Amino acid sequence: MGQREEEVLPSCNGKLPIEVNDPLLRVAHLSFSFRRREVLREVTFEGTTGFIVIHGPNGSGKSTLLNLVATVLSAPRETIFIAGQDIARPSARNKARRTLGYLPQTTDSTSFLRVTEWLEYGAWLRDIPSRGRRDHVAHALDTWALRPLAEQRMRALSVGQRRRVDLARACLGRPDLLVLDEPLAALDSNHRALVEENLTLLSRQALILISDPAHDWTGVQSVELDPLS
């Protein structure tokens, strides 16, 4: 697939106020236990734009790490910083939630909302101003090849179709930080190529933290996780 230039809307949330010497994301000596089992130990990495790909076998803590960065799980103090702010602090955590895009490994498959309504709801959650929401949703429908699905209900979509809709929703408003857990899962070859192309374009100005063991992402920073016994 040939390269294309990205037609973009302005970032609705503005850029995060990063200090000159601060990376957008810094994970520093992160250790984490879940239900009394140690899952992560002394994980350290940082980045501002491009891809950071999390590698590791099943049980190594990939999804746990992404959930911590996305604030789904509460991080220990002074281990995860977004735009220089410790997201263990409530104020920094709340701000991060409004400015990052997150795609979990599994999402709700029972929604009665139509695809357009699901995206509009996501735009509302991201604090995209009401006057611009329809433009952002229309752009997402076109960018992610979702026009044919726009009036279908989420619960009627296939797993791969829901994956594309939820990925488009995560990217609404062009967040500075995207946290994506296996974004290519359940996609056919054509849509995998589209997603890879779109994410590559977004990575020019955003940081994409991604877990995808089934895809060989090249030319990126890698973080290797090992299972802890």
Please provide a written account of the structure.
By secondary structure, the protein is an alpha/beta fold. The chain has one domain: Rossmann fold (3-Layer(aba) Sandwich), CATH 3.40.50. It is built from six helices and nine strands; from the N terminus they run E-E-E-H-E-E-H-E-H-H-H-E-H-E-E. It has helices at residues 62-69, 90-99, 115-125, 130-143, 159-170, 189-202; strands at residues 25-34, 37-47, 50-55, 80-82, 85-86, 100-103, 177-181, 207-211, 221-224. The strands form two sheets. Strands 6-7-8-3-9 form a five-stranded parallel β-sheet, sandwiched between helices. A four-stranded antiparallel β-sheet has the order 2-1-4-5, covered by helices on one side. Helix 3 (115-125) crosses helix 4 and helix 3 (115-125) runs parallel beside helix 5 (159-170). The longest helix is centred in the middle third of the chain and has 14 residues, at 130-143. The relative contact order is 0.22. The mean pLDDT is 88.
Q: Mind telling me the C-alpha Rg?
A: 17 Å
Strand percentage, roughly?
15-25%
Q: SSE order, as H and E?
A: EEEHEEHEHHHEHEE
**Superfamily (CATH H level) name:** P-loop containing nucleotide triphosphate hydrolases
Largest sheet: 5 strands, parallel
**Helix residue percentage:** 25-40%
CATH topology (level 3) name: Rossmann fold
Number of strands: 9
Unreliable runs: none
Distance between the termini: 43 Å
Question: Could you provide a short overview of the structure?
Answer:
By secondary structure, the chain is of the alpha/beta class. Helix content is 30%, strand content 22%. It has a single domain, classed as Rossmann fold, CATH 3.40.50.300.
